[in-house]
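Problem 12. The chain below contains 205 residues. Write out its predicted structure in token notation.
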Amino acid sequence: MEDVTTLTRTQLDALREIGNIGSGNAASALAQFLNRKIDMAVPSAKILDFKEIPDLVGGPAQSVMGIFLKVMGEISGRFLLLIPEHTSLRLLHTLIPGCEIDSPLDMGEMESSCMREVGNILAGAFLNAISTLTQTPMLNSLPSMAYDLSGSLINYVVADMVAVSDKVLMIETSFIEAEEDLRIHIFLLPDPDSLKKLLKSIGVA
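Solution.
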């Protein structure tokens, strides 16, 4: 197991570049899916307490749509999308003709399936880019989704990871569509047991 608190600056910079490559691929996929120009914030690679993650999207009391997938294979972990309410509604109105819901709580099966597909496309594009870079097969599970406070969502997604360590390596960025201020935050949380393999695959073990 790799202790994330011992990562060097060189290793974090290399992981940030992995985030840049994966996020760039995901942003391109999202732009094609929405037929809109999508800008990407500069990715970061940080070591955080789990409880600090919600602060990146406005705090633990911020209501968000959470779409999460397990990353499976030699490199495993969690892939998480946190989508503010405004963005989730605009995505639904864009992708589903005639959709008029005004709260994520009103979503039916069609709307839920649409949002899960957004998560599936972004996760697949992100992980395919990293898989190609590292020459390591990586798969994602089917996406799960929930609408809740960001603090509650994070606690649910990482509950089993907290049992291993109270800190996590997080590769994070956000996608921004300026015209309607649409924002999607994406997070890759590698399992500690997989981190050594990931570092070795990019030559900074």
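Discussion. The chain has a mean pLDDT of 84. Students who got a different answer should revisit the alignment rule from Section 12.3.
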